[in-house]
Design a protein that fits this description.
This protein has 175 residues and is α+β, with helices and mostly antiparallel strands. The chain has a single domain (12-162), classed as Alpha-Beta Complex (Peptide Deformylase), CATH 3.90.45.10. Helices cover 17% and strands 36% of the residues. The protein contains 2 helices and 10 strands. The strands form 3 sheets. A 5-stranded antiparallel sheet has the order 1-2-3-6-7, with helices on both faces. The N and C termini lie far apart (32 Å). Bound molecules: nickel (II) ion. Nickel (II) ion (NI) binds at residues 97-99, 139, 143.
Length: 175
């Protein structure tokens, strides 16, 4: 296992579209282990997408079970080739991203989604998600298409917020 380097804005590779996974092999699963270790290494992240570590494959991990407020969620999910097949409703909510460490932003997302994907062994998965988890899934799947949350804010002037304190590895710096 290894902690991988996270690409950060304005790295142009974050705009690259990722390719579908075709081989559900040990190499894929070893990469997913590294991706998970990377997710857990930095500031608490509810999700991470493969292209954030420079691997342009359609793989994301989300885990909305560790948030402070109880929210409906399916726990720790590894989603390979995820596709959202149904959207319902929309609402604004605050988002952050490991690749955009200095800002949070208000982003409009679907409130409820149906998502289909595969697990790391190629078995099909399907979930109905709502609220926070639906938002996390939409954010991570956007990464697979080269889209960051800052690309989705209605106004960069009023909907982006500089983080006052950014903590990583015990150090902090004023924003
Ligand atoms: Ni992100």
């Amino acid at each position: 296992m290894a902690v991988l380097e996270i690409l950060k804005l304005p790295d142009p590779r974050l705009k690259q579209v990722s390719e579908p996974v075709t081989e559900f092999d040990d190499a894929l699963r070893a990469f997913i282990d590294d991706l998970e270790e990377t997710r857990q290494n930095g500031p608490a992240a509810v999700g991470i997408a493969a292209p954030q570590v420079g691997v342009f494959k359609r793989v994301v991990i989300i885990d909305c079970s560790q948030t402070r407020k109880p929210v409906p969620n399916h726990g720790h999910l590894i989603l390979v080739n995820p596709e959202i097949t149904h959207w319902e409703g929309f609402e604004a909510g605050r988002e952050g991203c490991l690749s955009v460490p200095d800002y949070t932003g208000n982003v409009i997302r679907a409130t409820r989604i149906h998502l289909e994907a595969f697990d790391p062994w190629g078995n099909p998965l399907a979930f109905d998600m709502e609220g926070y988890e639906a938002r996390a899934a939409q954010h991570e799947i956007d990464h697979l298409d080269g889209i960051l949350f800052v690309d989705r804010v209605v106004s960069r002037r009023t909907d982006l917020f500089r983080r006052k304190v950014y903590q990583k590895g015990g150090k902090s710096k004023k924003g």
